[in-house]
Write a structure and sequence with these properties.
This protein is mainly alpha-helical. It has three helices and no strands.
Length: 95
């Protein structure tokens, strides 16, 4: 098997793993922004229904956070399963 091809595929999997982690951090950041918006509404806006809007913001934040975690683990498992298609690159480089 071509060692350059194996290395290229291995590096592609590493980039995919880093992209998955970056996506999780983007979900986390978005979730924190919604939480911050929920906390800020009480002080910034003196509206009649700020409690309901605040609860809505916290609900959206929790939903995004849970979705981000589940998305991360789903894609992590897919990446792990795709490693079998590379071949045994460790044995090829040792010889």
């Amino acid at each position: 098997m071509n060692k350059d091809l194996i290395l290229r595929e291995n590096l592609a999997l590493q980039r995919t793993t880093l992209a998955n982690q970056s996506t999780f951090l983007a979900f986390l950041r978005t979730s924190l922004y919604f939480s911050l918006a929920g906390l800020s509404l009480e002080n910034l806006l003196k509206i009649k229904y700020h409690g309901k809007v605040q609860i809505l913001m916290f609900g959206i934040s929790v939903f995004i956070f849970i979705y981000g975690i589940s998305n991360y683990f789903i894609h992590k498992n897919r990446i792990k399963r795709s490693e079998i298609h590379i071949g045994n690159y460790k044995e090829d480089y040792e010889s």
